[in-house]
Design brief:
- This protein has one helix and ten strands; from the N terminus they run E-E-H-E-E-E-E-E-E-E-E.
- It is mostly beta strands and 137 residues long.
- The chain has one domain: Jelly Rolls.
- The strands form two sheets. It has a six-stranded antiparallel β-sheet with strand order 2-1-8-5-10-3, with no helix packed on it. A four-stranded antiparallel β-sheet has the order 4-9-6-7, with no helix packed on it.
- A hairpin with a 3-residue loop joins strand 1 and strand 2.
- The longest helix is centred in the first third of the chain and has 7 residues.
- It is globular and about 45 Å long.
- It starts with a strand and ends with a strand.
């Protein structure tokens, strides 16, 4: 299962996760930051979409609450579009305490440039989302 680590090392799991050694053995890849977003409103927005011809494994999503207020977030994965609703939700209305961080360990494989990882917060300017992963070309 994937894992979510929260403030002071809280972890939640979702989905299967191959070891990084196994992923690296598949083909040449580059580990990098895939996207970063600090939403300025409470609408869902795209955090990351793979480039054409790439296969990407999103390995981690970090959510940092930079405010003094508790907040909540949603994370979506639409493998062939940008529909961010209950039908593409991975995490829905997860609470994050003020001044804390959650880290979601996962293995979301994306190979369609029209697909997207989306995020949403209930409080504008309070959360920063960052995705990391492996890019195979």
């Amino acid at each position: 299962m994937g894992t979510l680590t929260g403030s002071n090392s809280t972890r939640l799991h979702r989905g299967g996760r191959a070891s990084e050694d196994t992923l690296l053995a598949i083909s040449p890849s580059t580990r990098k930051q895939l996207g970063q977003l600090r939403p300025t409103d409470t609408s869902a927005a795209s955090l990351f979409s793979p480039a054409s011809g790439e296969t990407v494994i999103v390995t981690d999503i970090v959510i940092c609450n930079v405010s003094a207020n508790d907040a909540s977030y949603r994370i979506f994965n639409d493998d062939d579009g940008t529909t961010f609703d209950e039908g593409t939700a991975l995490f829905f209305d997860v609470s994050i305490r003020a001044n804390s961080t959650h880290t979601i360990d996962n293995a979301i494989i994306m190979n369609d440039s029209t697909g997207s990882i989306g995020v949403r917060t209930d409080s504008a300017n309070d959360l920063t989302f960052t995705a990391y992963g492996l890019v195979y070309t």
